[in-house]
Specification:
Elements (H helix, E strand, L loop, with lengths): L5 E8 L3 H12 L4 E4 L12 E4 L2 E4 L10 H10 L4 E5 L2 E5 L2 E5 L3 H25 L8 H9 L1 H7 L1 H8 L8 H7 L5 H12 L18 E5 L3 H14 L3 E3 L3 E7 L5 E6 L5 E11 L3 H7 E2 L5 H5 L3 E12 L8 E4 L8 E4 H4 L9 E10 L4 H4 L2 H14 L8 E14 L5 H15 L3 E3 L1 H4 L6 H17 L42
Parallel strand pairs: 1-2, 1-12, 2-9, 6-15, 10-13, 12-19
Antiparallel strand pairs: 3-4, 5-8, 6-7, 10-11, 11-12, 14-17, 14-18, 15-16, 16-17
Helix pairs in contact: 1-9, 1-17, 3-4, 4-5, 4-7
């Protein structure tokens, strides 16, 4: 791909789901689009599929489910013949035993034993009779709802691994939003029905999305979707330019954008464009804008949780049937184990070799993130053996993939910081559009990121911000805001944990 200076109608920063959705739709409508992506090989961002010696693996699991018909229709348009329907199976690992998820009552009772099960129910009863009247933290809320024993078994360890902070420092608001509608009695009765074979009706996913019993998935992983989108974009004459990192962006005397990107040889390419769509992290965008915005301090205060996957190739036809296993055990650092053959058999080319992905949550620069690949592979082998999932000597290969800025951190000040920066940039630059998870510092799923791109395309076509992309959320329809300007399109916002107000 040529990296010469050129003009475009729209320059897009980042070739993840949001950026490529915008590029695909705009190029279909006749716009000339240039997308810059810093990765030299892969598109899709956190939804990419990495290939290593013929094995394909995801950066986390990505089920293709959405309540937004427009999103589903676009998936089908890009990949009309390559979706497969896969059974959903996941379990929880705790103290050497596996628990079906959703729970099966008799299995759970058998694993916990009579004494611990009794303690769980007694702890639950105590919480109901003597609830904490001053609920401040995630721990307070969950203990009130389920009792301390069940909190310690099924909530504490995994939650702390993912978010990197103690449960008693996380805001209770997140627990109330994330676990709403779940009751111990409901879980027990549902588990009893499942255990007795009385629950015959498949869950359609509308009541509780996590309980979907099947899901759609591209046969070669989610990266297949975004690799195909890239190829379709390039076929229109627009460009997806790989291995180019954003260096700076500014407006000229005519109000058009000059987007500078550094290529692999150090040469700087400039794209002159009428509009810029940015899925780059808000912090990065603010630092590269010329002149720098007045809200640069707020942007630099935004924080992120990072993530790495250690893929292991293991001599075995299959290790376990699950798509993934949640690791609720403090003896190991791994938070979740993916089984890529269960996602799609085509992800694993050798039937005698299993491929799993151990997911570790970390902060960029900490011990896990900075450890050499060989050390991380050895850690993963050791932890698989501790969990009883394989023998270390059966591992025949491994690879490490690091994903920076995987999760935006919702600390005490993030909402104010995002609002101030967004307000300034939208007022100053009507042709600058921020989309996607990192572009909006919003914990969007893949389909939500895509919808922010879809609405932004409509805004560009309309010549104004008639759709409020900041209202996009998982649980409602998407509506035009109408003549009155930015009216909320959706009812609520998907949350991630924040620290309690008084936490240090």
């Amino acid at each position: 791909m040529s990296s010469e200076d050129h003009s475009a109608d729209v320059a897009i920063i980042g070739a993840g789901p949001a950026g490529l959705t915008a590029a695909y739709l705009l190029s279909k409508r006749g716009y000339k689009v240039s997308v810059i992506e810093k990765d030299p090989r892969y598109v899709g961002g956190i939804s990419r599929t990495v290939e290593h010696e013929g094995f394909r693996f995801d950066i986390g699991g990505h089920r293709f489910f959405s309540k937004a018909k427009e999103v589903v229709d676009l998936w089908n348009e890009i990949l009309p013949d390559d979706f497969i329907q896969r059974p959903r199976m996941s379990r929880i690992y705790y103290e050497g035993k596996f628990y079906s998820y959703p729970l099966r009552a008799f299995e759970a009772l058998g694993n916990l034993g009579i004494w611990r099960s009794t303690l769980c129910m007694a702890s639950f009863a105590k919480a109901k009779v003597f609830p904490n009247r001053n609920v401040r933290s995630f721990q307070d809320w969950v203990v009130n709802a389920f009792g301390f024993k069940l909190f310690s078994i099924f909530f504490k360890t995994y939650t702390e691994k993912v978010w990197g902070m103690p449960c008693d420092e996380m805001s209770a608001d997140w627990a109330a939003q994330r676990i709403k509608g779940l009751s111990l009695w409901g879980a027990v009765t549902d588990g009893l029905k499942r255990s007795l074979g009385l629950n015959k009706r498949p869950n359609d996913g509308m009541a509780t999305k996590t309980l979907l019993e099947t899901f759609r998935y591209p046969r070669l992983g989610p990266g297949m979707m975004w690799e195909t989108a890239r190829d379709k974009i390039n076929a229109t004459g627009s460009k997806v330019i790989m291995a180019h990192k954003l260096k700076g962006l500014s407006t000229d005397a005519h109000g058009r954008w000059n987007v500078e990107a550094t290529g692999p040889d150090g040469a700087v390419m400039t794209i002159n464009a009428e509009h810029v769509i940015s899925s780059a992290p808000m912090r990065e965008l603010a630092n590269l804008l010329v002149p720098q915005p007045g809200t640069l301090g707020q942007a630099n205060d935004l924080k992120y949780r990072d993530f790495l996957t250690v893929a292991l190739m293991i001599k075995s036809d299959d290790l376990f049937p699950d798509n993934w296993i949640y690791i609720h055990d403090s003896k190991v650092k791994v938070g979740r184990v993916q089984n890529f053959r269960s996602w799609s058999p085509e992800m694993v080319p050798d039937p005698s070799i299993a491929c799993v992905g151990l997911e570790y949550f970390c902060f960029e620069g900490d011990g896990l993130w900075s450890a050499p690949d060989a050390e991380l592979i050895e850690l993963a082998k050791k932890e698989m053996a501790i969990l009883g999932l394989c023998r270390a000597e059966d591992v025949v290969g491994g690879a490490v993939v690091r994903q920076e800025k995987a999760y935006p951190v919702y600390d005490d000040s993030y909402a104010e910081n995002v609002l101030k920066m967004r307000t300034e940039l939208e007022a100053t630059y009507p042709t600058l559009h921020m989309i996607g998870r990192n572009g909006m510092h919003r914990y969007n799923n893949q389909d939500h990121a895509m919808m922010t791109a879809m609405l932004t395309v409509r805004n560009i076509e309309a010549g104004g911000r008639i759709y409020d992309i900041w209202a996009v959320n998982e649980d409602a329809e998407y509506h035009e805001s109408g003549d009155e300007g930015e009216q909320a399109a959706l009812a609520s916002v998907r949350q991630v944990p924040t620290r309690v107000a008084s936490a240090a």
